[in-house]
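Form P-L/3: holo structure prediction, ligand flavin-adenine dinucleotide.
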Amino acid sequence: MPSKVYDVIIIGAGLSGLASAVLLSEAGKSVCVLEARTTPGGRIRSVLEPGTNKCLADLGPTWVWPMFQPVISSWLDKLNLSSFPQYETGNAVIDNGPDQNVQQIPLPGQQGSMRIEGGSQALVDALVNKLPKETIICRSKVSSVNQESDGSICIETETKDNSKFYSKKLIVAVPPRIAKNTINWIPALPTALSNAMDMMPTWMSPHAKIAAIYDRPFWRENGLSGRIVGRTGPIVEGHDHCSEDGNVAAIWGFIGWPHDMRLAHSNALKDQVNKQLKRCFGEEPKSIIIEDWSQDAHVTSPDDLMIPMQHPSVGSDSLRQGYFDNSVWFAGAETAQRSPGLIEGALDAANQTVKSLIISS
Ligand SMILES: Cc1cc2nc3c(=O)[nH]c(=O)nc-3n(C[C@H](O)[C@H](O)[C@H](O)COP(=O)(O)OP(=O)(O)OC[C@H]3O[C@@H](n4cnc5c(N)ncnc54)[C@H](O)[C@@H]3O)c2cc1C
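OUTPUT (holo model):
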């Protein structure tokens, strides 16, 4: 007999897994979250200032749109977090490449794009702080899910001693392609579900993002918004990323080079990003950090690298049903019925999945 059987185990401590854990814990359930990495957050990752752990820049998501997104709006209220508008005052820089002069022109604003005070990391920290200690077990990559003859779920992890965990119910808050291809399911997942999981790309997973840290936001004094439109790259889209109080000065950008080129020329990439930022603003940053999500096996599957990414449409209904006698449920941005792929979707999936799981109990 297992020594402990949780009411619910959640695989994955990304936003959806953490929000599900908070809701279940508030409903009085005993919950355990198993996370493969060393820290929670999933696709939410930040550059933290050494010593203070203050968030300097987001390496994953940056924007939310509370004006159009009721779910993040209510979670921000619940977690006592605030948001502020993306800085857009001044001209954008159009960069036509190394041997060309940059142009400075006004561009239309990005209506409603808001940033969370303290970075997206603040969402993760606030959720973690709401959970009882020891709810999240990191460095615990789940390798198999097995429904026992009594209906309970046995979860095996790739730890030194292959630790096993037991629960009455399971929420899989891992991108569907990863959950299908890296976890051994006993019994096998139904074909319709398995196909639906294959069809659902993990949003943003083939991309890479840079954060450039400066001493001060001097571009603002020069009438620039911090926005970059890069015609030749490496940065193809960039934005101001200073903190609301202006104490952190930063720019973030998406890299336009394909993943295999990034991998083969990582030193050249850093060098060219520095040169491009100097071309755009007149100064190189004091540091740059490049996060290449295509190299992250916990969110990116080989299929995500094959086909150019388009914003995902809502996935099959089979991603939002209970399996194994309603013991196994899925959550995560990619299973959401609203705003799939986005923070809004990750939180909506948590809300809906927890509701369905509790009703089915
Ligand atoms: C570069 C980038 C920019 C983005 N920009 C935006 C934006 O501006 N606005 C927006 O709304 N959204 C944006 N997104 C999307 C947003 O980050 C995601 O929607 C959201 O973070 C997904 O959360 P999740 O919990 O569904 O999944 P994830 O964050 O992917 O969490 C899944 C977790 O499962 C873990 N895991 C995987 N396999 C296992 C296993 N076998 N065992 C245990 N744990 C496992 C992973 O390590 C991970 O922690 C962006 C994403 C990226 C990468």
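COMMENT: The chain has ten helices and 20 strands.
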